[in-house]
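Need a sequence for this fold. Nothing fancy.
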């Protein structure tokens, strides 16, 4: 897998998504069921009530026996991709990528995979002023629309309120929901949204983005931090605070993972310094269980 900064350097989201996903496409195992699709599978004896349009008349003329042509069709599902576009997603890692940059690559690659497997893909961008929603479509033309929306997305403000997010949970429709976020929230607003989506749509896959410099606290000396969402300023000596920060951060990560799993979400932590293979593997694994 190419490094995420290499994919980002292409400055071409469709090409980056294809590069990241193609290795998975080669080995994917498509789930199939018998139906009336276009790919022929086998014959079976005619039974009263069968659709006569599927009867093989040529074989009947040669053998004086009546057989129905069965075919295989690929199973598919609705994949709903959700992107947290609050201001904290502008945090930049040491490799030059912001969390938003990494999230774009992940979601674009998943959309490429899902579309190539015949899934209907929807995308919702969650911003404080409202939700930008691309309705689900199971067609190749959906990808350019989705790429365009991701490329135009900018992060800003706080995570949207429950009132703004209400349309996302208004309709009951089975789907695999994929939520990509750094999970910074004020009062469990993300947890409430995902719990409601789980109730109306089913499985929720949570991909928790963590920048490598957040984990290692790679800063040195006296430094000024600004909260990207509240604007609060904090000055400290990074070397003196590193050990305490790392302990607190690890405790927060553990508590966040435990809370997500306790609510029944499929939770996975991703580093913005890592290739996309873990994210795509978890997506395909979860997709397989939905079919």
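Here you go.
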């Amino acid at each position: 897998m190419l490094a995420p900064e290499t994919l980002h350097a292409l400055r071409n989201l469709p090409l980056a998504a294809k590069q990241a996903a193609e290795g998975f496409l080669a080995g994917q195992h498509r789930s199939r069921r018998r139906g009336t699709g276009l790919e022929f599978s086998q014959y079976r004896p005619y039974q009263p009530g069968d659709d006569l349009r599927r009867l093989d008349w040529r074989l009947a003329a040669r053998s004086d026996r009546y057989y129905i042509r069965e075919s295989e069709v690929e199973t598919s599902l609705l994949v709903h991709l959700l992107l947290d576009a609050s201001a904290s997603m502008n945090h930049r890692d040491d490799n030059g990528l912001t969390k938003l940059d990494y999230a774009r690559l992940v979601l674009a690659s998943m959309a490429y995979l899902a579309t190539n497997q015949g899934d209907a893909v929807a995308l919702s961008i969650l911003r404080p002023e409202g939700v930008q929603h691309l309705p689900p479509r199971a067609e190749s033309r959906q990808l350019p629309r989705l790429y365009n929306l991701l490329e135009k997305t900018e992060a800003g403000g706080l995570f949207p309120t429950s009132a703004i997010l209400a349309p996302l949970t208004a309709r009951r429709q089975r789907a695999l929901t994929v939520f990509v976020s750094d999970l910074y929230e004020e009062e469990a607003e993300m947890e409430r949204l995902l719990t409601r989506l789980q109730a109306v749509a089913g499985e929720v896959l949570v991909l928790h983005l963590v920048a490598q410099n957040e984990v290692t606290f790679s800063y040195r000396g006296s430094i000024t931090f600004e909260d990207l969402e509240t604007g609060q300023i904090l000055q400290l000596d990074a070397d003196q605070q590193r050990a305490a920060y790392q302990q607190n951060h690890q405790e927060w990560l553990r508590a966040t993972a435990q809370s997500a799993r306790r609510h029944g979400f499929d939770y996975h932590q991703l580093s913005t310094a890592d290739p996309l293979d873990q994210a795509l593997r978890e997506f395909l694994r979860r997709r397989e269980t939905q079919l």
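For context: The chain has two domains: 4-29+77-290, 32-74.
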